[in-house]
Amino acid sequence: MASARRPRRLLALRWHLLGLAALSLLPLVVFAVLLVRRSAREERDETQTALVQRAESLASAIDREIAASLRALETLARSEQLARGDLAGFRREALRVDEVQPSWFAVVLFTPDGRRIVDSRDAFPTGRTVDPASFAEVLRTRRPTVGELVRARDGNTWSFALRVPVLAGGKIRYVLTAAVSAEITRLLSTGGPGEFEWTRTVVDRSGAIIARTRDPDQWIGAAVSPAFVERVRGAPRGSYRDRALEGIPTVVAYSRAPLTGWTAAVVARADALDAPVGRSTRQLALAGLASLLLSGAAAFLLSRRFARAVGSAAEAAQTLGTGGEVAVEPRGIQEVATLGNALSSSSRLLEARREEVERHLARAAEARRDAEASSRAKDEFLAMLGHELRNPLSPIVTALHLLRQRGAGWGREHEIVARQVGHLVRLVDDLLDVSRITRGKIRLRPERLEAAAMIQRAVEMASPLLEERRHVLVVEVDRGLHVLADPVRLAQVVANLLTNSARYTPPGGHVRVTARREAAGIAIEVSDDGQGIVPELLPRVFDLFVQGPRGPDRAEGGLGIGLALVRSLVALHGGTVEARSDGPGRGATFRMVLPPATAVAVAPVVPLPSPRPAVHRPLRVLIVDDNVDAAALLAELIARAGHDVHVEHDGPAALAAAEALHPDVAVLDLGLPVMDGWEVATLLRRRLGPAAPAVVGVTGYGQERDRARSREAGFIDHLVKPVDPAELLAALEGAGARAERRAPG
Per-residue pLDDT tens for 459-483? Predict the structure, then answer.
C-alpha cells in the first residue's frame, strides 16, 4: 500500500508578510546591482578598448621602425657598385650605411642559391643563411620580407633579418640582408605606460616573443600561449581573458602589424579591471540587506493585527459549514470586512443551492430513466423492423426458388431480382448486427484459421457484385498466415470491404486484396482505383451512417453501416483498421492489422459419423403463418419435395388442425395473431403429449433472446427469414427422422 502523502508545512501570516517584503525589495536590489554591474562593465569595456588602441599604436610604431630600415636597405640595393658587380666597392658602401643604423649588426649579400658573398662587418663566417624560411620567402614573393627571431652564435644576442631582392633583367640576382638586433624595447614605451597596464610584449609571426617590458631576459625567444596564437589567427586585433606566462589572470589587448606580421600586446591584470565592479556590488548588497531587515521588522509588527482578523474570518467559515450565524471582526481591515459580508451572503445562499442541487439530481435521474427507456424502445424497434422486413422478403425468396426449380421462364430479370433481394437481406443483417454490437451482444467464436481460406470465402460472398460491375479482382495472399478469429465474422469484414470497393469503383475497375506478415501482425489490405475519398470525409469514414457522395453510376446503395461494422468487428478481434486515399478519383485503400495466432496444439481430426440416410417417406407438415403469400409459397415448396402440407394462419386454427391431422412437423411463424408461435408450440406439447409434432420456427425474429426462447419452447430449429429453401428442407428431414424414431415399431 502506498504511503500517505505528507501534508504541506503551514507558515504563520507574519512569515508570509516577511516574504512579501523581501520579494518586494529583492527586485529593486537586484536591479540596482545589475545596473551598477552594467556601468562597471561598460567602464571595463572602455578600458579594454583603450588597451587595444595602445596595442595598435605599438604595432604602428614597430612597423614604422621596420619600414625605415627596409627603405634604407632598398636604397642600398640600388647601389651602382652592386649593379656593376664591384663587390669590394659595394662592401665599403654597405659599411657606411651600416654605421648609421645603430640597430644593425651587419649588411650581408647572398646569391640566390644562399651563398654569403659580402659581409659589411665580417661578423659571420662564409656559408649559407641561418634563416632559410625568410630567404625562401623573398625568392618566392620577390618582395622585401622580415625574418623570424634567431639567436646569434654567441648564444646571448637575438636578431632578425630584413631581406630585399636585388633584380637584374627581371630576375633575382642577389638577396640583400640586414641583420637587425632584437633590442627594440625602447619602442615598447611609446606613448608611456597607461593606467592598469602590467606589461607590453611583441611577438613575431611564429609565436616567439621578440620583446617584453617585464623580465625580458627570461622570456625573449619563448613561445606565447596557444590561446594567444589562436586569437591572433582569428582576428588582427581584439582583447580577451587569459593567463600570463607567470600564471596571473590577465586581460590581453593585441594588434597585428600589417607590414611585419608581428603582434603587439598590452596586458593588464584582470583583478585590477574587476575590482570596481565587485566593490560596487558589495555596497549595494549591504544596503539591500539593511532595507530587507527594516521591512521585515515592520511586517512582523503588522502581522498581529492581520492574524486576529483572519482568525475571526476562519471561525465564521466554520460556523457557515454548521449552518449557524456568521460574525466576523474585521479589526479595521476593509478586505476582512468584505469577506465577512460575503460569508453572510453565502450562508443565505447555501440552503437555496442545496435545494437546487436536489432538483437537478431528480431531473438527472428522470433523464437517465428516459434514456434507458429510449434505448430499449430503439432495440425493440430494430427487432420489429428486422421482423417486418424479413416477412415480405421470405415469400420473394421462396418464389424465386420455385421459379428456378420449374425452369420455365427463368431469365435475366429473375437473376436481377435475386441479387437485389440478397442485397436487401444483407442490409437487414448489417442493421441488426449494428444493434447487437452497440448493446455488447456479439459473441465471437474464435478459432485458428488460415487467412487465405478466410479471404477466399469473403471473395465468394462479394463475387456477385464484382462480376456484375465487371471489376478485375487481384488476390495476393501469402500462405501460412494464421489468425485467431471468428471465421464467419472475419469473412464478413473482408466481404464488406470488397463490397464497398465494388460500389465506389466505376464498372471495369480494379480491386486488389493482399495479405502479408508484418512486425505489427497480419496485415490485410483491400484497395481499388475508384472514386476515392475526399479529405474531409476520411476521418469519419468508419462512423455509423456516414457515406461518400453518391454518383449516378452507383449500381447499389447502402445504409452507411458496412464500414462501421468493419471497425467494430476488427476491434473485437484485437486489431486495427484504417483508410487511406489520395483524394477524389484516386482510389482508396482499407488496411487492417490483426494479431497473429500463436502456435497451438491442434486436436486430432476425428472422422465424422456418416450422415443418416434421408427420410424419404412423405411427412405431414402443418404450416402456420399469418402472411398468406409466404404461407402459400412455403407450402408449394414443401409439397414439391413430396410432403403432405396443410396451412393455417393463426394459433387457434393451428391447434385445431393439429388435433385433427396429427402432423409430423409443424412449421411455425413466431409473430402470429391471437397467440404467438412460442405459445402455440407450448400448447401443442401440452395437448398432444408424445404425439406432438416436431416444431421448426421460420420467423423474422433473429436475435439471441428470440432463439433462447425458442429452445425453451421446444423448437428443434430456429430459421430466420428469408430462409434458404435447402436449409428448410434439411430441417424438415431432421424433424422427420425424430418422428420416425417416435413412431410405433
Answer: 988 888 888 889 999 999 988 899 9
Average pLDDT (716-731) is 85
Candidates 418, 411, 419, 415; CA nearest to 396 is 418
Interval 50-77 mean pLDDT: 87
DSSP states along 313-341: HHHHHHHHHHT-------TT-HHHHHHHH
Q: Are 107 and 161 in contact (CB under 8 A)?
A: no
Mean pLDDT along residues 174-190? 74
Cα 539 off chain centre by: 18
| Residue 481: HSE in the Cβ half-sphere, 13 Å Cα cutoff | 21
Report all structural domains of the chain as residue ranges with CATH numbers, in order of start: 61-180 (3.30.450.20), 186-273 (3.30.450.20), 444-594 (3.30.565.10), 620-742 (3.40.50.2300)
H-helix or E-strand spanning residue 267: strand 263-269
Report the pLDDT value the prediction gives residue 435, as an integer from 0 to 100: 60
Angle at 645 (CA atoms; ends 696, 397), nearest 5 degrees? 65
- ∠ CA 260-266-267, nearest 5°, is 140
Decide if pLDDT at 323 tops 70.
no
Residue corresponding to grid cell 669590394: 88
Residues 23-47: what's their mean pLDDT? 75
Q: What is the pLDDT of residue 588?
A: 92
Bond before 446 cis per omega within 30 degrees: no
What whole-number distance in Å separates Cα of residue 631 and Cα of residue 626? 7
Q: 615: how many CB neighbours lie within 10 A of its CB? A: 17
Angle of helix 270-322 relative to helix 334-406, nearest 10 degrees, comes to 80
For 642, list phi and psi in degrees, rounded to 5.
Answer: 100, 15
**Model confidence over 105-140: pLDDT tens digits?**
889 999 999 888 988 877 555 445 678 888 989 999
Bridge partners of 268?
A: 197, 251
Give buried/exposed letters for 256-267 (b at 16+ CB in 10 A, else e): bbebbebbbbbb
Q: In what order do the strands lie in the sheet with 620-624?
A: 644-648, 620-624, 665-668, 694-699, 717-720
Say how far apart CA 432 and CA 681 lie, in whole Å.
26
Distance CA 190, CA 238 (A): 19
User: Burial level of 226, CB count in 10 A (0-12/13-18/19+)?
Assistant: exposed
**Residue 580 pLDDT more than 60?**
yes
Closest of 357, 346, 356 to residue 319, by C-alpha: 346
Q: What is the pLDDT of residue 355?
A: 72
How far is the C-alpha of 629 from the C-alpha of 333, rounded, in Å? 92
CB-neighbour burial class of residue 165 (10 A; exposed 0-12, middle 13-18, buried 19+): buried
- H helix runs in 407-446, sequence order: 412-438
The pLDDT value given to residue 555: 44
Q: What is the mean pLDDT of residues 483-498?
A: 90
Grid coordinates in use for 58? 605599438
CA dist., res. 73 & res. 77, Å (int): 6
Residue-wise pLDDT tens digits, 371-421: 667 666 665 566 566 556 666 766 776 766 666 666 656 655 566 666 566
CB 329 within 8 A of CB 337: no
> pTM (2 decimals)?
0.38
Contact 264, 200 (CB under 8 A): yes
